[in-house]
Amino acid sequence: MKHVIAVLAALLLLSSLAPAREYAVCGPQGGISMKLTLPEGFNTTSDSCHMVILMHGIFSSKDYPPMPRIAKALAKEGIASIRFDFDGHGRSEGQMVDMTIANELADALAVCNYATSLPFVTGISLLGHSQGGVIASMTAGNENVHPESLILLAPGAVIREATRGGHFFGNTFDPADPPEYIKCFHHYKLGRNYLTQTQELDIYGVPADYQGPVCIIHGSKDGIVPLWCSEKYHETYSSSEMHIVEGENHLMIKRLGEVTGIIVGFLHGTLAPR
Q1: How far is Cα 153 from Cα 176, in angstroms, rounded to an integer?
Q2: Dihedral of CA 114/116/121/124: which sign?
Q3: Which of 111, 127, 231, 245 could form a disulfide with 151 if both were Cys (CB 3.0 to 4.6 A apart)?
Q4: CATH number of 2-270: 3.30.590.20, 3.40.50.300, 3.20.20.370, 3.40.50.1820?
């Protein structure tokens, strides 16, 4: 677990050194950095395909495991993807201390609207890892979003229990009166609004409004998000399948080939023929 946390911290620090750029989509904190991956030889003016929107976890980025390899695996199967940085992460604008679940949900909705506006996109699916899984699940339950399928990788529903209990990534605080911010990994600040608002999330209620097919994947050696989070999601959905990958950790890099195989197989089995 210490190794995984150290890797996440190092990756986010490196991403903060990225240069400024222009943004096609904006969220509450400003520009959202995105990366589009298309199947090889795909012509955006004459071809069409399905699109998967990839959502990373807290303290991570679109450019770090497991997102790039998932995007590559999807492209090989003729499926496009957009992966993006949430506000205060990676190359997107904003500050980590101002990040909240509400802001991330707004970011996700903005990217979904952008993806569905692309003329070559026939439909969308959502995929989220860790906290990104919470966002993907709640976005799928939004009445204005109509994904054809949903994929959750180690969905981090434990954030609600952690903030309610006043324990978060080694920090201890009064959940009824959190400080202005807490520091994670001695560097990254999570603000009071995140700590208070996360306690009140309808973390399984909103996702339950989504009635489509769901694939849930969790590593048996995940030391950050407990297995019960995925089990609860599995109970919540009316049409879900759950896969436990033996020996896999939270970042899903040890057996990522197996994980991407499950993802691709699920998508092929649930997407309507074009």
Answers
A1: 30
A2: positive
A3: 127
A4: 3.40.50.1820
At 212, the amino acid letter reads G
Specify the pLDDT at position 274.
55
- pLDDT value at residue 271: 86
3-state secondary structure of 215: strand
What tokens does 168 get?
């978060």
Tell me which residues of the chain have a pLDDT lower than 70.
Answer: 1-21, 272-274
**Phi then psi for 43, rounded to 5 degrees?**
-105, 115
Which helix H or strand E contains 3, and what residues bound it?
helix 2-15
**Closest CA relative to residue 108, chosen from 131, 78, 91:** 131
Of the candidates 256, 187, 271, the one whose C-alpha atom is nearest the C-alpha of residue 219 is: 256
Distance CA 215, CA 143 (A): 20
- pTM for this entry: 0.91
Task: Respond yes or no on whether the N-terminal peptide bond of residue 273 is cis (omega within 30° of 0).
Answer: no
Q: Would you state the structure tokens that stand for residue 101, as one six-digit string?
A: 């679940």
Beta-carbon-side half-sphere exposure of residue 93 (alpha carbons within 13 Å): 13
The two tokens of residue 162 are 């952690």
Distance CA 82, CA 126 (A): 10
